[in-house]
Structures are given as C-alpha cells and as structure tokens.
Amino acid sequence: MNLKELFKKTKTRNTAGDENVKPEVPNGLFVKCEKCGSTISKEDLEDDLSVCPKCNFHMPISAKKRIEIITDKNSFLEWEFQIETKNVLDSSGYDEKLEMMRKKTDLYEAVISGSADIDDRKVAIVVMDSRFMMASMGYYVGEQITRTIEKATEERLPVVIFTASGGARMQEGIVSLMQMAKTSAALKRHHDKGLLYITVLTHPTTGGVTASFASLGDIILSEPGALIGFAGQRVIESTIKQKLPEGFQSAEFQLRNGFVDSIVERKELRDEIGKILGLHVRAKPNKIYSKIHRDKAVNKKIKQKNTPWEIVNLARDKNKPVATEYISKIFDDFIEFHGDRYFGDDSAIVGGIAKFKGKPVTVIGQAKGIDTATNVYRNFGMPSPHGYRKSLRLMKQAEKFGRPIICFVDTPGAYCGITAEEGGQGEAIARNLFEMSGLTVPILTIIIGEAGSGGALAMAVSNEVWMMENSMYAILSPEGYASILWKDGSRASEAAEEMRLTPKDLMELGIIDDVIKEPSNYKREKIKVVAKVMEKKLLGFLMDYESYSRDEIRKDRYERFSNM
Ligand SMILES: [Zn+2]
Q1: For residue 463, how far is its CA from the centre of ligand 1 (angstroms)?
Q2: Distance (Å) from CA 57 to ligand 1 centroid
Q3: Which has the least CB within 10 A, 288, 538, 542, 563?
Q4: Are 212 and 327 part of one and the same domain?
Q5: What separation in Å is there between the alpha carbon of 37 and the centre of ligand 1?
Q6: Rounded to two decimals, what is the model's pTM?
C-alpha cells in the first residue's frame, strides 16, 4: 500500500469520529510531533517541509535540507576554512562524542556555511544544524561563522544566518564563551561597511547564541513557535520557583517584547528573504526617478476654507484615511518590521520598508485605527516610548542603507500614562529629536490628521513637513490650551483661533513647507485622489534630495530648525 493512502485513511477515520480505532503505526515510517504528539507520516512531513500539519510546529531540520529549501538550485558553494574542533580542556568523552556525532549526522560540525543565491541575489549563508550536539557553539562553530562573516565583508555580501542552538558548548568552557565576542566583533565590521545582515531564528535558539550573533541582525525573522531565549526554562523555573506560562520565550513572545521583526512560515521564508534582499539593493543616485523638478516656490499664500475649530474637528474625523491606508495606497511591497529591540512592539506606530517607484524607502506612520476595535489595538494613535524607539531603530537602518524616510504623523499626542513614564517617554522623544537631526538621508513628514505636541515632533524633525488641508499641528490640544491658560476647557474653539494651528498659519510661520488639498467632504473612500497628489509631490521631494550630498541633507535640516 502507498504510504500516502495509508495516512489519508487514518485521517478519514479520525474525522469519522471513531477514535477507538487506532491506526497501526509501522515503525520508522511515522514521526511523532514533539509539540502536539500527533503521529505524522514521514512522507507527508517531507512534503510540508517538516511542519506539523496539526499544530504548525516548525520542527528542526538539517542544515542541508535548509540550504535546499532556501537557496536557488545548485547555487550553494560551501566555504571551507580547514578549521578543527579543539578539545582544549581535555574534556573526558568529548572526542568520542564528536566521533559519534559525525557518524550520526554525516557532518564534521554543527554549522555549514558558504555562498549561495536567494532569488538570484548572492549572499553568504550560515546554517546551524541542531542534530549535532544541539548546535552548541564551540571554537569550530564560532570560527566558521566568524570567517564566513569576514569573507562576506571582504566580498561585500549580505549575510543570512539560520540559528538553532543550545548555546555555548560546555566541553570547551571559556573558549566557547569567547566565540560570542568573536562573532559579534566580525558582525560589527560587516555592519560598519553598510552591509545587510538577516538572522532567522529557528527552534530552538538559546544561550550564548541568542546573546551574540542571533540578536544582532538588521532584520530578525523567526519561524512560528520557535523557542528563543537566553536562559533555559528549567534554570529560570528553579531560580524564580514558579512555573513558566504557556508560550514563554516563543517567537511570538519575542515579537511582542520587541526582539523579532517578523514571524514567517517556513514555506514563505525563501520569498520573504528574497524580497528583503531586493529592498536592500543600492540604487545609483539620479538614475531611478525621472527628472521631475518641483516648483520650489510653493504656494506660501494659501486659502483657508474652514475656521480653525472646523479644521480641528476635520483633523479628528474618524472617516478620514489613516496612515496604514496611505502606506498601502502609495507604496509597493511594504514589509512591516516590529519592535524596538529593547522592550516591546508598539502598535501605535507602524514601520517598515517599501518601494516607491521601484526604489526602497523607509516608511513610518503613527497609526490610528479605523473603528473602535482597531483604535483600541492602536491605542488611538498615541505612541509609547517603545514606539518612538522602534521608529528610531528603523530610521537608523534607513540611514545605514541610504533610504529616504517618509513619516506620517497622526496623533493627539504621545501616550500619557504610568507605563509611558516608566518607559521613559521624555527620553524616547528627546532621543528622536537628537538623532533625527543628524541623519544623512532625506526625511519627509506628512501630517495627515492631528499632530499634537512632542509626540508629533518626535517624528517631524524632517527636511520638509507637509500638512493635509484639514489637519492641525500644535503644542497641545485646544481643550488643553484653554484649560491651562483660561482654566476653562470648554473654550476650545476660541483657543483654536488663537493657537495658529492651521496649515495656513503654520505655512506663514515657516513651520511647514507645503499643504495638500483635500477633496470636499474628504473621507477614506476618496483616498485615491489624494494619494495621487501625494505621489507626485513625493516624487518631486525625492528627486530634489537625490542631488544633495549626505552632509547637505543634514545641514539642510539643521538650518530649517535653527531658523525657528
Ligand atoms: Zn504538532
């Protein structure tokens, strides 16, 4: 009988509800899922790239298999550096264990590396194989990875590392510990050359590997459900004398806590990495955009149809498009990246890389929701400190890779609460102002609704700031202004008149640089018209700044604010 048929039959039986009839499981043809305990035919598992069809557990796979499913056919070229495993401590039984592992896995050690193409783009690739002593990192593993990174730096190649490891290799003691520093140092040199490093964390990645090269990717992807952590769960449990909650140290836990950019299914990984590589190809200046020159003398005198208070209300209108809608309308291939790499991922700020007219840009938006549920999820567009830190992380990355930055601002203000203060809201905003002032790539901010206070400014230290016709930008809300100055929050409309928060006023004050007209009764259904206008203006902005040197871009921004 064909194996597949056998398995299909057992499935049919189970769905028929006859649970007492256990399928016969011939030894060696089936494997048991480590997570859910399901029995799966090896053939089916092979077809599913070793992902459990019942619980989606991404089982560890061999390095060779990984290379086969990730790289372009026949493109992998192994890099051998004649390294030998050293039993420096004369650890008893270590040599025998290595011997046994080599026989069992047909590998010399726990890592394979070399060059390969992914989606037609050449990379240096490192793959750890957890079947070999849990892919623990001793001298060989550390040295092989370091030399691969060094060779990649020399050849100006991106590095892609698939991690899986129990951590340091105990048998090699302190020498093993040093591998953490060595690999990290090699990555620093690679980073300083402006080269891309992608990490893919697979099950399990722990200990000294997590505390070194695994956590240092420009972009950190993970397979779903992978165990990722520093200390082992048993160690933690015995230290804190508590049982750990379900999902502790999972990839999803790491995403929530800000350490993983994105979780990607194994079958999607190759395409996703290909896409990311495509977004990091350095474009030659002045080659991409057609020569469209902006009318630099923008209309300083603009007509204002509505009263300031009407503008405030229109800026807050729930039916106006939000940042995520502009992003998907104006840009192509947007990939969202999560997390500040310190504390968490703030859903009030959405950021990532996208293409605009074929060229990579970094896009970051303060995101309101479109209904109550999404507004709650997005905290009504009020960012937390880790949101600002995420935006800064993405901006720094944009600078590393020479990408212009486009920010959408739409916030009543930075989130005000206990957690925000504990997280250092003030420091986070200040840091953005400080760092943004020095970035050497062009930054454009478009205020699409409300722009309140330092929470807005933290994403508006830009070369240019534009506003939608019915948007507002102010030190605080008119309600707050009235209540602080006149002890009467109900005089908000009067405050709006006085505060000079409309695009017309701000243009006259030289605070902003352009105003985008809105169709009458502007609702999200009409976004297409506005997006077209934005696109055209954005093209002009990018075109202009392409002719600036990095120093000129920074100076231009510095002068913009020094004149205020
Ligand atoms: Zn399972």
Answers
A1: 52
A2: 5
A3: 563
A4: no
A5: 6
A6: 0.90
Instruction: Report the helix count and the strand count for the chain, using DSSP H and E.
Output: 22, 17
Per-residue pLDDT at 563:
85
Q: Report the DSSP beta bridge partners of residue 473.
A: 451
Rounded distance, CA 292 to CA 300, Å?
21
CA of 224 to the centre of ligand 1 (A): 12
Asked whether residue 292 is domain-assigned, the answer is no
Q: Are 346 and 486 in the same domain?
A: yes
Counting as low any pLDDT under 50, the low residues of the chain are 1-25, 297
Q: How far does the centroid of ligand 1 lie from the alpha carbon of residue 210, in Å?
A: 25
Residues with CB under 5 A from ligand 1 (ion): 33, 35-36, 38, 52, 54-55, 57
Give the H or E element holding residue 174. helix 173-192
pLDDT at 501: 97
Q: Which residues of 245-257 are buried (b: 16+ CB within 10 A; e: fewer)?
A: eeeebbbbbbbeb
Residue 145 and residue 271 share a domain: yes
Same domain, 42 and 140: no
> Which residue range(s) make up the domain with 546?
308-562
CA 27 to ligand 1 centroid distance, Å: 18
Cα–ligand 1 centroid distance for 242 (angstroms): 26
pLDDT of residue 292: 54
Q: What pLDDT does residue 129 have?
A: 98
pLDDT at 326: 98
pLDDT attached to residue 298: 54
Question: What pLDDT, in 10s, does the model give residues 477-529?
Answer: 999 999 999 999 899 999 999 999 999 999 999 999 999 999 999 999 999 99
Ranges assigned E (strand) in 329-463: 332-336, 349-356, 359-366, 405-411, 443-452
The reply to whether 232 falls in a domain is: yes
Q: How far is the CA of 298 from the centre of ligand 1 (A)?
A: 61
Is 58 inside any structural domain? no
Helix, coil or strand: residue 290: coil
